[in-house]
Write a structure and sequence with these properties.
Elements lengths: L2 H4 L2 E2 L6 H12 L4 E5 H6 L10 E5 L5 E14 L5 H6 L7 H12 L2 H7 L10 E10 L1
Parallel strand pairs: 1-3
Antiparallel strand pairs: 2-5, 3-4, 4-5
InterPro entries: ASCH_domain (IPR007374), DUF984 (IPR009326), PUA-like_sf (IPR015947)
Protein name: ASCH domain-containing protein
Pfam family, one: ASCH
Length: 137
């Protein structure tokens, strides 16, 4: 059994084109951070990531691809997400406003509303978990 087979699964977005593009950005080194609403951890009854955590990224088809290790974690208000984090997400955003617009589209999508409740509406005070990571060779 390969090491990656024993690691917990890490999923980016939902299976499909967005997940595939995020994984490609990680593979090229463009994406070294991600953002998750604190509420998603709470609703899923999941522990927050911690420095040193290691998991295996899975593709849209469920295939285990490669390992990532958490190198930093911060919890901040949505209004306080810094530019360096937005840029490190590697999604082509050049400003925090652009990053926020794209993430708001995702965080208010039907899939996320199904997970967090139709009444959920992120705002400036919504807490966001900012996670930095590195690919494990």
């Amino acid at each position: 059994m390969e090491m990656n087979d024993k690691l917990p699964i890490i999923e980016f977005a939902f299976p499909g084109p967005l997940r595939d593009s995020l994984i490609a950005a990680i593979e090229t080194g463009a994406k070294t951070s991600t953002s998750t609403l604190l509420r998603q951890y709470e609703v899923g009854n999941e522990a927050l990531p911690a420095v040193g955590d290691t998991g295996c990224v899975v593709g849209s088809d469920g295939e285990r691809l490669f390992a990532l290790q958490t190198t930093g974690v911060d919890v901040v208000r949505l209004a306080d997400v810094p530019l360096d984090h937005a840029l490190a997400e590697g999604e082509g955003d050049t400003s925090v406003a652009q990053w926020r617009a794209g993430h708001m589209d995702f965080w208010t999508s039907a899939e996320i509303r199904a997970e967090l409740g139709a009444e959920f509406e992120p705002d400036d005070d919504t807490l966001v978990v900012l996670e930095r990571f590195a690919v494990v060779p």
